[in-house]
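ok so i was messing around last nite and threw this chain in just to see what happens. nothing serious, just curious
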Amino acid sequence: METQHPTPATTILLVDEEHKYRITARWLLGNFGFIVESARTAKDALALFDAKTHALVVTDNFLNGMSGTELAHVIKMRSPSTPVIMCSALLPEDRTCLDVLIQKPVSLLALKAEIERVLAGLPCPHHVTLPAWKPCACAKGSLWAQL
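result:
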């Protein structure tokens, strides 16, 4: 199968508290043609997020203030079609707003492949897959609705 390459305008929002991870991921994914904007917290990510600009969001779950799961709910409330990939050491119980869940540690090359797969709309062959996407409960309103 031929590898899909990102278009020049493919922008990813990367959210992770680990500075070294953000820098390394930005560098690697940037070398593969992605534009990567990053944020340390969910609050910072929400200030940056623009559904017209960001093709997808990659987040850790363990963030200060608001978890990556909660961030995914807000992203889906703002833009239900924006894919959210979570890379986390401990898998969250609430997976309703996640399109893909990958358990850390994960190589950045594997993350790149997963991003390309999601952008191409291809099925996931080997990571933790989630049931077919359905609207999360937050689409009906939640305590995060005001964000």
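not much to say yet. The first strand starts at residue 11 and ends at 15.
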